[in-house]
């Protein structure tokens, strides 16, 4: 007997607002039962000596360090930013005109 019944699949389908046919209910019941069985087998593994982890790989913070600065202190210098712009004029970015205003 299946651990996941077709009635449970039908209930989940209604909650998810999915229209499933009779054949699909049976098909998904079998698939979900296999998934639940696989998860149950994983819980049987001896993991007493395995430390809990949040990620499979160690994470490294690649962001800059937080530095307290006085209010109004720019993070980047204006000249440095404008030097990287495709076009600059009068200490501002120069962009194409998009409106016909004078």
Automatic annotation (TrEMBL):
What enzyme class is recorded for this protein? ligase
The cross-references to Gene3D superfamilies, in alphabetical order and at most eight, read: Glu-tRNAGln amidotransferase C subunit, N-terminal domain
Which reactions is this enzyme annotated as catalysing? L-aspartyl-tRNA(Asn) + L-glutamine + ATP + H2O = L-asparaginyl-tRNA(Asn) + L-glutamate + ADP + phosphate + 2 H(+); L-glutamyl-tRNA(Gln) + L-glutamine + ATP + H2O = L-glutaminyl-tRNA(Gln) + L-glutamate + ADP + phosphate + H(+)
Q: Which InterPro entries match?
A: Asp/Glu-ADT_sf_sub_c (IPR036113), GatC (IPR003837)
Q: Does the keyword Lyase apply?
A: no
Q: A Pfam family this protein belongs to?
A: GatC
Name one molecular function that GO assigns to this entry: ATP binding
Q: Which domain of life is it from?
A: Bacteria
Q: Does the keyword Cell wall biogenesis/degradation apply?
A: no
The biological process GO terms on file are: glutaminyl-tRNAGln biosynthesis via transamidation; regulation of translational fidelity; translation
The EC number(s) attached to this protein equal: 6.3.5.-
Keywords tagged on the record: ATP-binding, Ligase, Nucleotide-binding, Protein biosynthesis
Q: Which HAMAP family match?
A: GatC
Q: How does it assemble?
A: Heterotrimer of A, B and C subunits.
Family note: Belongs to the GatC family.
**What role does this protein play?**
Allows the formation of correctly charged Asn-tRNA(Asn) or Gln-tRNA(Gln) through the transamidation of misacylated Asp-tRNA(Asn) or Glu-tRNA(Gln) in organisms which lack either or both of asparaginyl-tRNA or glutaminyl-tRNA synthetases. The reaction takes place in the presence of glutamine and ATP through an activated phospho-Asp-tRNA(Asn) or phospho-Glu-tRNA(Gln).
Q: What is this protein called?
A: Aspartyl/glutamyl-tRNA(Asn/Gln) amidotransferase subunit C
- Protein source organism: Actinospica durhamensis
């Amino acid at each position: 007997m299946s651990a996941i019944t077709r009635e449970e699949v039908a209930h989940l389908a209604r909650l998810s607002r999915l229209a499933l046919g009779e054949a699909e209910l049976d098909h998904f019941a079998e698939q979900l039962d296999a998934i639940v069985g696989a998860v149950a087998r994983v819980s049987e593994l001896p993991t007493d000596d395995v430390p809990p982890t949040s990620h499979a790989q160690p994470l490294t913070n690649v962001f800059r360090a937080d530095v307290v600065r006085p209010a109004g202190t720019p993070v980047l210098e204006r000249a440095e930013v404008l030097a990287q712009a495709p076009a600059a004029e009068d200490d501002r970015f120069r962009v194409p005109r998009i409106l016909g205003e004078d």
